[in-house]
Design a protein that fits this description.
Uracil-DNA Glycosylase, subunit E, globular, six-stranded mixed beta sheet
């Protein structure tokens, strides 16, 4: 099973050390909690037509709870938005057993382990890339990918290209650039861009709920 294989991965020494150190030295508010401290698989509807692709788990978010975008401020912003557009049954995501269900949507990250300073390296993205490629193959109904930030945008393009037969030329050259609201065909998918719902973006007003809702609403409209 792909999720179990992802959770057992120890391919990146820097990330293994960081995710486990975070579990051993949690902030006071999480002291005493048992951390997941492993790579975090994707989550959602296996019949999804829309994939939300993020950067990587937060050290005290997905790295703690074991579910992507769960237990941190980015997840609070993301799942509230998914609920508003009808892709989630509730607006909160705090633990793996909180009753959250996604309808027509799946959420994953370009890198599956929490990285130092929330900054995974391109090489770590490349090591994780086969997992995303295989997830795309398993999500047979998938037609739309919403890349949350430029790092995820690049990961999505790489995964789509990896799924093409040699010499298929399914991606335009030069590769399309990321931007909030950007939209481009990518093989069998439509790729849409949105700023990542990190506190750095949401607290500064670079990304507002209205801006994020507009991208999600576009994906939902296309998926109908």
């Amino acid at each position: 099973m792909l999720s179990a294989e992802i959770a057992a991965c120890r391919a990146c020494p820097r990330l293994v050390a960081w995710r486990e150190s975070a579990a051993e030295n949690p902030p006071a508010r999480f002291r005493g909690e048992a951390y997941w401290a492993r790579p975090v698989p994707g989550f959602g509807d296996p019949g999804a037509r829309i994939l939300l692709l993020g950067l990587a788990p937060a050290k005290d978010g997905g790295n703690r709870t074991g579910r992507v975008f769960t237990g941190d401020r980015s997840g609070d912003f993301l799942f509230a938005a998914l609920h508003r557009v009808g892709l989630a049954n509730q607006p909160t995501s705090v633990s793996r057993d909180d009753g959250l269900e996604l309808h027509g949507a799946y959420v994953a990250a370009a890198v599956r382990c929490a990285p130092p300073d929330n900054k995974p390296l391109p090489g770590e993205r490349d090591i994780c890339a086969p997992y995303l490629h295989r997830e795309l193959a398993l999500l047979a109904e998938l037609r739309f990918i919403v890349a949350l930030g430029a790092f995820a945008w690049r990961a999505a393009l790489q995964a789509v290209e990896a799924g093409a037969s040699a010499g298929a030329g399914i991606l335009p050259r030069p590769l399309p650039h990321f931007g909030h609201g950007a939209e481009t065909p990518a093989g069998p998918y439509i790729l849409l861009g949105a700023y990542h719902p990190s506190q750095q973006n949401t607290f500064t007003g670079r990304l507002t709920p209205e801006m994020f809702d507009a991208v999600l609403a576009r994906a939902v409209c296309l998926a109908r």
